[in-house]
Amino acid sequence: MNSPKQNRIRSLIEIFLVSTRLGLTSFGGPTAHLGYFHEEYVRRRKWMDEKSYADLVALCQFLPGPSSSQVGIGIGIMRAGIVGGITSFIGFTFPSVVALIAFALLMTGFDVGNAGWIHGLKIVAVAIVAHAIIGMAKSLTPDLKRKAIAIFALLVTLLWQTDFSQVVVILMAAFIGFLLLEQENEGGVVQTRFPVSKQVGAICLLVFVGLLVVLPLLKEMTGSYWVAMFDSFYRSGSFVFGGGHVVLPLLENEFVPTGWMSEEAFLAGYGVTQAVPGPLFTFAAYLGTVMNGWEGGIIATVAIFLPAFLLVIGALPFWDQLRNQPKITGAIMGMNAAVIGILIAALYSPIWTSSILDAKDFALAVILFSMLSYWKLPPWIVVVTGAVTGLVLL
C-alpha cells in the first residue's frame, strides 16, 4: 500500500502529464480549451462531476483573467491542493511559453518593419480579432442596455486614450451594470465544497489588491526597469474580462506608446500566438522576450498569470455567496459589455490602422476572416496562410 506522500506525488505527476498533453494539443482559444478540459477531466478521468465542473467554469467566467487557465488551475487545486493547481498551470502553459520565447529570440535582428511575412501576420490579427468580437458580442451584448454600454466603452476608449482609460471604462461599466442589470439565479441557492479555507482565500485576495497598490509605488521609488515591467504585466492580467483576446488592447497600451517595443513586433507576435496551443495569455512570454531576453519572457509570464492564481484561490471559498447575488452578476454583465467596446476600439487602432494599407491587404483580411468564420478552419492554418501570403505577395 502506498503512503499518503507517495499518493500525492503520483497525483502531481499525473496532473502534470495530463495538463502538458493538453497544453500541446489545445488549439482554438478559451472556449475550445474548456471543451478539451471537459472531455479529459470530467468524461474520461472523472476527476470531478458535471456539476462541480460547471460551478468552476462559472467562477472563472466571473473573475478577471484567462478563464481557461483558471479552470485548469482550479481542477488541479481540487485534485491535489494548491500545489496541484501550480502543477496543472505549468503543464498547460509551458509548451506555448517555450514556443513563443523561441520565436521572439529568432526574431532578434530581423527588420520586422519591412518583412512581408510580418505584414501578413498583422493582417491575421485583423481577421482573428474581428472574428472574436463577433462571437463574443452575441453572448455579451444581447440587449439594448448592454449594446449601449459597449458603444459608450468604444467611444471613450477611442477618444480618451490615456494609461487609465480602459480601467476607468471597465469600472464605470461595472457600476452601470450594478445599477441597471441583474440576473436571477434560476437554479436557486447552491452550495459547493472547495478545498481552500476562507482564511487562505482572504490572504490571497489581500495580496492581489496589495500588489496593485504597491507595485506602482515601488516602480516610482526604485525606477527599476524590472519592477516597471512586472507592474505592467500584472495590471494587464488583473483587469482582463472576457477572455484572452481582451488582453491585446491592455498590453498594446502598456508597451507600444511607451516605446518598449514596436507596433510591428507587437502585432506579429500576436499573430503567431494564435498558431500555438495553450492560453492566449502566453503572448506575454513573447513580449517579455522581445523586450529583455528569455529572462524577461519568464518574468512577464509569471506577472500576467499571478493575478489569475490569486483570484482563483481567493474566490473559491466565497463563490457561493457571490454567485447568489443578482447585483454582483449585473456588475459583471456590465464589464463584459464594455469589453466588446474596448475590443472594437483596439480593432480600429492599432490593428486596422497599421495593417490594412491598401486593397490587397483588405482582400487578404477578408479571405482570412472567411477561413475562420465560414470554413471553420483551425487558427494555425489561418496564421500560416497569412504569413506565407505576406511573404509572397506583400
Description of the molecule:
The chain is mainly alpha-helical and 394 residues long. The protein contains 16 helices and no strands. The chain has one domain. It has helices at residues 4-25, 30-44, 50-62, 67-107, 116-140, 144-159, 165-180, 198-222, 225-238, 247-255, 263-273, 283-315, 319-323, 326-355, 359-373, 379-393. The longest helix has 41 residues, at 67-107. It is globular, with a radius of gyration of 21 Å. It starts with a helix and ends with a helix. Residues 184-189 have low confidence and may be disordered.
Instruction: Note poorly predicted spans.
Output: 184-189
- What structural class do you assign from the helix and strand content? mainly alpha
Count of strand segments: 0
Overall shape: globular
The fraction of residues assigned to DSSP E strands is: under 5%
| Sequence of secondary-structure elements | HHHHHHHHHHHHHHHH
Percent of residues in helices comes to: over 70%
Sheet with the most strands? none
Mean pLDDT: 85
- How many H/I helices? 16
